Amino acid sequence: MKSLIVNADDLGWTEGVNRCIAEAHRGGLVTSASLLANGRAFVSACELARANPGLGVGVHLNLSNGTPSGNPRDVRSLLNSKGLLHYATDALFLRIVTRRMDLDEVQREWEAQICKIRAAGIVPIHLDGHKHVHMLPGLFEIAIRLAKKHGIGAIRISHEDSRLRSLLSPGAQQKTTMLLKQAAQARVLKFLARNARELANHAGLVTTDYFCGIAQTGALTTGGLESLLKNLPDGTTELMCHPGYADSDLRASPTRLQQSRQAELHILTDERVRKLVAIQGIRLISYLAGEMA
User: Fold this and answer.
1) d(CA 269, CA 52)
2) pLDDT, tens digit, for every residue of 266-291?
3) Which residues constitute the domain of residue 246?
């Protein structure tokens, strides 16, 4: 059986991102979303989640943007001089290996993010990381501990399958510097947490068999998605996506993903793509344990 989770990252980033994710769920392929506890549009994101019970919601563990969800005094090694989470994934990696980041503080902040989401009445069903930060050395183990503690049954393994990456690629003409950089990032993440699946399985957490979307972040095309759907392997696959409206709030936010987010909405709700899912007999699911079985 072929099962597909289409997960929209960054729920809660802005109001326009929230609206777009809702539309991509109601009229398209999105089955799951990852919620930023410290996103500027967190409140409306929770309202959206409650109004769409068929949308599986996970926690988008964050160390890179916004104010901390925990007490700033308790997470000082994670913050810049303005008291903000701001480190990119490569900078976080360097801070980990040079021991300039306190891993106990990471656990405190991530637990505060999970608790904030639960306090809003949302029961998260999976964990993943904003910019895949949960895959860094030492941080995946923290995510596993928190999942077990809070009864969260699934976790994303950001090991992008190379064959699926090729299927999603729209062609040689799209091999820009950014896409090549993202493909390299996917390989590095896979190496850094090469034992992640074994750790998750040992902890009894559910994972997908395949994952894709890193290399094509901000460059998803209809042709690439159709290629993936026509050749989807048996088992469970997660496709990561980033739909959103390119409104003034998004343009003012620290993300390079602008017009690409709105383009993804059109791709994910394309009638031809939706029909192809049915023709191929693909089951659209979320990380809910019953659906993953």
Assistant:
1) 17
2) 999 999 999 999 999 999 999 997 78
3) 2-292
